[in-house]
Specification:
The complex is a heterodimer of chains A (about 140) and B (about 220).
Chain A: H1 2-28, H2 35-51, H3 54-59, H4 63-70, H5 77-83, E1 92-98, E2 101-106, E3 110-116, E4 119-130, E5 133-140
Antiparallel strand pairs in A: 1-2, 2-3, 3-4, 4-5
Chain B: H1 5-35, H2 43-47, H3 50-57, H4 60-76, H5 96-99, H6 111-115, H7 117-124, H8 126-156, H9 164-167, H10 171-197
Helix pairs in contact in B: 3-8, 4-8, 4-10
The chains are: A alpha+beta (about 140), B mainly alpha (about 220).
Chain lengths: ~140, ~220
């Protein structure tokens, strides 16, 4: 019995090992947007807001965030966004992506993003750390 | 084909389950995307995501630990009446003659069983070594995948993701790990204990139907 069981084990190892390699390889080289793309999206958002192109900035927000920002007035995203006092940023300090969520730490802001198709959309911006508690954000659709 | 039925059968079951998991996981992931008004992701995008890697690797380590411990502990621990156990008096590593190694190797024995020296030592422990290595690697994979899932949840709640080193000493990691371990150990215990008194006609995992309850080291 031991020999038969051992043979089955070996066949299963081979399959499992092959699958593990495949999973590992694909997870690292997948077609999903990564932390670099998240940093680009966060920077673009800030650039758009600073240059006054709030329509374009609204296009970078996640639908839930737009909804929160408009507060029941559909189509008012650009107007509402102009009223938000976002601090100007100039550089990316850190960008981390885990699964379908990302956090980009800029010199004067922290931005949270969510994956939508092949792109990153901003869920929260103008965020201030409160230690262990969730960040306090000026724009927040979480 | 017939002589490899068991490995082919389980191999196909594994692939079918993995494929089913990929499609159901994609559907579930996209359900959540739609609920948040976000664009759905494609099949390849999903199977190359960390979400899928997390789900695939999560249970592997406990399965390998289960088999690794069963293989190693069954060298010294025996169970009277169980077909999972060898005969009581054979406890331990057994003699070179019993194990057909070195000068006791037979014509059709594997080369490394005949070779002697380090080759025979390595080959004599190869099953446990490979099992143990896969267990450690898959546990490491679980820690990385689990951390990704945890960090993602933190980000969803607008909190800092933390680090992997913080994660592996967290209650979350140990809770996930021990949840899996307890079920595997229960399964082995059930198999060892129930097979003393219960039978499955024709299965090598069982004793022959008419075999005595206290007969040990017998297969069906």
């Amino acid at each position: 019995m031991r020999t038969k069981v051992a043979m089955t084990f070996r066949a299963l190892f081979a399959l499992a090992a092959a699958a593990a390699v495949a999973v590992g390889a694909t997870a690292c080289s997948g077609s999903n947007p990564g932390s670099a793309e998240a940093a680009v999206a966060a920077t673009m958002f800030h650039d758009d807001v600073r240059s006054g192109d709030v329509e374009a900035a609204c296009g970078l927000l996640a639908p839930g965030t737009v909804e929160e920002l408009e507060e029941g007035e559909p189509g008012s995203c650009a107007i509402k966004l102009r009223e938000v006092d976002l601090r100007a940023t100039s550089s990316v300090l850190e960008s981390e992506a885990y699964g379908s969520d990302a956090q980009v730490v800029l010199d004067e802001d922290t931005v949270f993003l969510v994956q939508s198709g092949q792109n990153w959309k901003i869920t929260a911006a103008g965020c201030t750390s409160r230690g262990e508690r969730p960040y306090d954000c000026l724009i927040d659709g979480s | 084909m017939v002589t490899n039925g068991l490995s082919i059968g389980f191999g196909l079951l594994f692939l079918a389950s993995l494929t089913g998991q990929a499609f159901s996981g994609l559907a579930y992931f996209n359900e959540q995307q739609m609920a948040a008004n976000l664009e759905p992701v494609g099949f390849w995008q999903y199977v190359t995501s960390s979400s899928f890697a997390v789900d695939v690797s999560e249970n592997w380590q406990s399965e390998y630990l289960q088999f690794f411990l069963l293989i190693i502990l069954a060298v010294w621990l025996v169970q009277k009446g169980s077909p999972e156990s060898k005969e009581i008096e054979k406890r331990g590593l057994e003699s070179d003659k019993d194990q057909m190694i070195g000068q006791y190797a037979e014509d059709d024995s594997p080369a490394w069983a005949k070779a002697g020296g380090w080759k025979t030592v390595v080959f004599s422990n190869s099953l446990g070594l490979v099992m143990g290595t896969i267990f450690v690697l898959s546990w490491l994979a679980q820690s990385v995948a689990g951390f990704t899932a945890y960090a993602q949840e933190q980000l969803e709640n607008l909190q800092d993701p933390g680090s992997w080193t913080e994660y592996i000493v967290s209650p979350e990691f140990w809770n996930r790990t021990l949840q899996n371990w307890q079920s595997e150990f229960l399964a082995v215990w059930s198999m060892v204990a129930l097979s003393i008194f219960l039978r499955q006609r024709g299965s090598p995992e069982s004793k022959p139907v008419g075999e005595a309850h206290d007969a040990t080291g017998v297969q069906g």
